Amino acid sequence: MGEKRYLTERMQPFTSTIFAEITALATRTGSINLGQGFPDTDGPRELLDAASTALYSGANQYPPGPGIPELRTAVAEHQQRFYDLDVDPDTEVLITTGATEAIASSILALCEPGDEVVTFEPYYDSYVASIALAGAERRTVRLRHPRFDIDGDELRAAFSDRTRIVLLNTPHNPTGKVFTRAELEHIAELAVEHDAVVVTDEVYEHLVFDGLSHVPIATLPQMADRTLTISSAGKTFSVTGWKIGWMHGRAELVAAARAVKQFLTFVSGGPLQPAVAAGLRLGDEVFHDLGRNLQRKRDLLVAGLQRAGFDVFPTSGTYFVIVDAAPLGFDDGVELCQRLPELAGVAAVPVSVFCDDKESTRSLVRFAFCKRDEVLHAAADRLSRLGAG
Ligand code: PMP
Ligand code: GLN
């Protein structure tokens, strides 16, 4: 008998995440980390104060399984305020340990082994791991650069009579694509035709630029009843380590996900829940400023990347921008990201690791711009060495 492998077959491809690898590389080499997407400043003071107050006033035991009523109500009010969605906080909201757990529990709750999940590539890494955990199959549709468009025929062909879920992400990581209403309508039409549930990851909902609007697919006709909408506090309030997320949707769908969630983590982040509720109730300007500020950072980094000689693709949302490194003579993004700390003192993430079709994205690299201006200036400066060499 060969050496015993403890990890199950279905999890063999997922032994480490690219984000952990690149952050470790950045730390080891003292590089500027534009790989993993996390801000280097804290979010609104009101949240931090509310968390600290909750921590010192006894909110340290198990909160209720679905989440504290105050936070479920704040989620419902937020959806009403920004998207005119009617959500019942008692039956239609579930608080989770980050969006990550909301995604995993939705997929584990809804998919039988062999069921199919339609999603888009490049994809967020936890999607494929969660699909594999459920024993389901992924059917990916390519977002084609430079504009990350969808081919309508390819989208239709990804659906079958085994399609159970369409797993959507808008604004989209890693491309920065904000799906248009027309694209969402096409996806919705196919979901209805195949009686699929749409699980939509909207963690970057407030990080949208250039006057574009984020459209939750749940707002389209016939969709509220077949959609689980997911978001989290991490991006909206610059607290990625808090891991407070949520989902909302039809009561039966939320109840199914809750059945799984209770055995993954049971409940989530007691003292952080009231703080996130306070955050969701902040004035509109806080949400708008976030996008405006980040758009400026995007422009700053994009200009630096262009000066360095990369071919930079348009990004309208999220923390991220994708570049093609081929014009600088780098055809392999995985290799470039291994060497970038040594070449320029900057860390980034290769895009092909988020794709089944690795060839078409081979020379693409993702940079994060959710950093202080001086850090972005320093990174741009360092990257300008690449062309000179
Ligand atoms: N979805 C996407 C698209 C992400 O980029 C991330 C990373 N933050 C997550 C989900 C995970 O969110 P959370 O940290 O709330 O689990
Ligand atoms: N969402 C972040 C990114 O895409 C990282 C989250 C993680 O490290 N799992 O960079």
Automatic annotation (TrEMBL):
Belongs to the class-I pyridoxal-phosphate-dependent aminotransferase family. Gene3D superfamilies: Aspartate Aminotransferase, domain 1 (3.90.1150.10), Type I PLP-dependent aspartate aminotransferase-like (Major domain) (3.40.640.10). InterPro entries: Aminotransferase_I/II_large, Kynurenine-oxoglutarate_AT, PyrdxlP-dep_Trfase, PyrdxlP-dep_Trfase_major, PyrdxlP-dep_Trfase_small. Pfam families: Aminotran_1_2. The keyword Transcription does not apply. GO terms for molecular function: kynurenine-oxoglutarate transaminase activity; pyridoxal phosphate binding. This is Putative succinyldiaminopimelate transaminase DapC. It comes from Phytoactinopolyspora halophila. The keyword Transferase applies. Residues 32-382 form the Aminotransferase class I/classII large domain. It comes from the Bacteria. Its cofactor is pyridoxal 5'-phosphate. One of its GO terms (cellular component) is cytoplasm. Keywords: Aminotransferase, Pyridoxal phosphate, Transferase.
